[in-house]
Amino acid sequence: MNKNTLSHKGYTGSIEISIADGCLHGQILFIDDLITYEGKTIPEINKEFSSSVDRYLAYCDKTGKSANKPYSGTFNVRIGQELHRKAVQEAFVRNLSLNDYVSQAIKAASEQNASAPTECLPLSRQMRSSRVHGSKQARMQG
Q1: d(Cα 77, Cα 109) in Å, to the nearest integer?
Q2: What is the pTM of this model?
């Protein structure tokens, strides 16, 4: 992810600074439920994030509620007929299913972008990635 996030049991959490309150706070990202935490120091907010994830999972287990999973591994993408046609043709040439072709393309793009310094990425991409977490279904645009 990036340097301003936390990770525990497959969940990602944000870290924000509140100057007015003199604390750090955040929330578990990429799930439908709203789970927040706060702390005064980096070690404290890390501990509170991990505890929040653990309490959330324990609550879901106790109540029989399905815990939101950060990523299901499937999503729908609207790319237009022409790009769809080109992707199917390219997958065929490479002897791949469309799913495998798209997965490989996304993986290659992600690895390429992971090595690029953040300041070199377009501002719109940085802004999109920071606001994706608030919706039930994230829609990728671009």
Answers
A1: 16
A2: 0.60
